Amino acid sequence: MKFDSIALLADDHPPAQAAIEKLKANYDHVPAEEADIIVALGGDGFMLSTVHQHMAKGTPIFGMNLGSIGFLMNEFRDTGLRERLLKSEPIELHALSMKAKTIEGTEHNALAINEVSLLRELRLAAKIKIIIDDVERMEELICDGVLISTSAGSTAYNLSAYGPIIPLGTGLLALTPISAFRPRRWRGALLPENTIVRFEILDPQLRPVSAVADFTEIRNVVSVEVQQETEVLPTLLFDPEHNLEERILNEQFLP
């Protein structure tokens, strides 16, 4: 990985702010819009936010963990940064594109790195029809919600909902129900990454549903279409001994 300029970004928490002051004192840096590489200090949430802000330009992002889990991050060290960046290995992520239509008839578009999730808004369970590549696969899923996850996001909300962990490069998406009531034993499906999934909300006035693409929430949806985004490909950088492929594989063997 070759580069001439670095941008240094950090979330608002005191550890990240203290760390960025150390780095700024030791390394030349430029605004993110002018950088060849962005260094992001914080947790996974800050990393996702940084990716969303800058993925249109395609600037690679090297994260250092100053949050809780730091699944998408490298270990924080305030020395040897340029050497680490030169040795870092890129991972290209495949985002999801969400098109949502609301009860009012408005249409919204958003991108997701981790997952697109549909969630009930009130006490009543949601009723959702699932159509895959124009074929109705489930007439009615009664549930708290349902989500579609990328491989990079499969260890996040998807895993908490008992969805499968998907290694990078497998070309698969996870379709996972959230607290399904009927069909009671349905645990979801693995789909090819070029699949187009359409959700239709049944009784949307009585059983309102929101659609969430990472940080973007659209309330009172009547239909949601999800497919892989092919033009925007965010790139994350990892230390060779701490890469994302290995972390996702290792998650499958944790107690």
Question: Any overview of this molecule?
Answer:
The protein has helices spanning 14-26, 44-54, 81-87, 157-160, 244-251; strands at residues 6-10, 37-42, 61-65, 89-92, 96-102, 107-112, 115-120, 126-132, 135-143, 145-149, 172-178, 189-192, 197-202, 209-213, 216-218, 221-228, 235-238. Strand 2, helix 2 (44-54) and strand 3 form a beta-alpha-beta unit. Strands 6-5-16-13-8-9 form a 6-stranded antiparallel sheet, with no helix packed on it. The chain has a 6-stranded antiparallel sheet with strand order 12-11-10-7-14-15, with no helix packed on it. It has a 5-stranded mixed sheet with strand order 1-2-3-17-4, sandwiched between helices. The model has no long low-confidence stretch (mean pLDDT 94). With 255 residues, the protein is of the alpha+beta class. The two termini are 35 Å apart. The chain folds into 2 domains: 6-93 and 233-251, Rossmann fold (3-Layer(aba) Sandwich), CATH 3.40.50.10330; 96-228, Tumour Suppressor Smad4 (Sandwich).
What labels describe this entry?
5 helices, 2 domains, Rossmann fold, Tumour Suppressor Smad4, alpha+beta, six-stranded antiparallel sheet, 255 residues
Helix content: 10-25%
CATH architecture of the largest domain: Sandwich
Distance, first to last CA:
35 Å
Number of domains: 2
Q: What is the chains' assembly state?
A: single chain
Q: Globular, elongated, flat, extended or rod-shaped: what is the shape? A: elongated
- Average per-residue pLDDT, rounded, comes to 94
In DSSP terms (H or I, runs of 4 or more residues), the helix count works out at: 5
List low-confidence stretches: none
**Strand order within the widest sheet?**
6-5-16-13-8-9
C-alpha Rg (nearest Å):
19 Å
Assigned CATH superfamily of the largest domain: Probable inorganic polyphosphate/atp-NAD kinase, domain 2
Residue share in β-strands: 35-45%
Number of strands: 17
- Helix-strand makeup class: alpha+beta
Order of helices and strands: EHEHEHEEEEEEEHEEEEEEEH
The CATH topology of the largest domain turns out to be Tumour Suppressor Smad4
Assign the CATH class of the largest domain: Mainly Beta
- Largest pleated sheet: 6 strands, antiparallel
